[in-house]
From TrEMBL:
This is 2-oxoisovalerate dehydrogenase subunit alpha 2. InterPro entries: Alpha-ketoacid_DH_E1_comp, DH_E1, THDP-binding. It holds the Pfam family E1_dh. Residues 482-512 are annotated as: Disordered. It comes from Hibiscus syriacus.
Amino acid sequence: MANWGRISSRTIGNHIRKRTNQGFIGSTVDINPSSGSSSALNGGRSVSDQNRRYLNPLPWSRATLSWFQRFKSTVAAKQHDSFLSSDSDDDHLSLDFPGGKVSYTCDMNFISESSQARVPCYRVLDDDGELIKDCDFQQVSKEVAVKMYSKMVSLQIMDTIFYEAQRQGRISFYLTSAGEEAINIASAAALTEQDIILPQYREPGVLLWRGFTLQEFADQCFGNKADYGKGRQMPIHYGSKEHNFFTISSPIATQLPQAAGIAYSLKMDNKKACVVSYIGDGGTSEVSTLTISYFICLLQFAHGYPNCFLQGDFHAGLNFAAVMEAPVIFFCRNNGWAISTNVSEQFRSDGIVVKGRAYGIRSIRVDGNDALAVYTAVSAAREMAVNEQRPILIEALTYRVGHHSTSDDSTKYRQLDEIVYWKNARNPVNRFRNWVQSNGWWSEQEETQLRNSVRKQLLEAIQVAEKTEKPPLSDMFTDVYDYPPPNLEEQEKHLRETISRHPTDYSSDIPL
């Protein structure tokens, strides 16, 4: 049984209402989807035969009912209807098209490719960590502020030590969040444990904030038996069901349409939670970015298949979320570089924030190196996403201080002076520390104790992770199928035979 509310902006509804003079759109219609029958109440009267001619031919189905139910009592839907409403004083200057009425003009004007001025960037703290006068922001308690700063420092130290471990050959790969600590921690602090995270790969601080231990980070990077992924993922591909943190995957932007779907499921279940999906600037333009980065390789090794990397998941994810009014926050870390591709070579628009409007998504640009600004923006975005059931796009302007990963040398495509400037003058950790310390909430002694403690814990965690037994070989073939298919059984058999013939070529610390 479904209640159909008035949706005055729908073109078909307007047409029927005007033709019948007492259309059904303005009344409540009870539908029995199984039989296709309908009954309507219009001021206590049943639907007339004239109206029933328009009611009966409509193809009742579960999809049809769901389409109308999506808009039931949501703020976003009411605003959408108001925007497309035909109840205007200028109806005689409007044309009716699918999707609503639009005014017409005899002047031929093309919409400009860009506005005269760039979209401003919201910030609270200046580069020295002092509050900007008359700035509106979400107040942060001493307890939260100190925890935020402590986690930013922990993330900074964790990145340094794991990076060094990779350079020593102790782990195979690593990727840092240097320069983006405020984005990680401040955004996580503004969310609740019930909110679901779909990360890209530069957000370990979100997991750190939620309680993922340094030992758990080390176990994943070393791929031992304690790793929740059983050693089958690359290092830094963390995941935690306990902390509502989906496992990181390498393909770019695939998490965006997934986030829209998960958010819609939260909406269907009436959950007071939202989904937050992180993405880099390269992920918003993965078609152009990947084309530039891999074009030569594709020509050499994949003749005739230049589109094998093209995905377009940014478009799919945002459009899906907007149409379905899903409570999801798309958080873009615009750090200037998609590996070696600068943002100037990725798109001609004013960054990412302007793209939200094209999809009908409320958007904001924020200083990603300002922890208070990020915290305030995400707090407001979450409130809108949950209470109004709508998607939000946040573009955080920042800078990737580190190399893209341990497989990259960024000095080959950018100046060292540029990196040093952002590392020192625009450092988000130092900036937030200045503000916390100016409030009397932090001291030099506490700073020393924190850094020594985190470093000691990490070194101990690495020692434990290195000594922990590796997952058994059989784990490579489990957890996908209930019963392994013949081809997997054949592969396992072939692998074991190969190992038995060449035992010295395989690691001896993996149980067979």
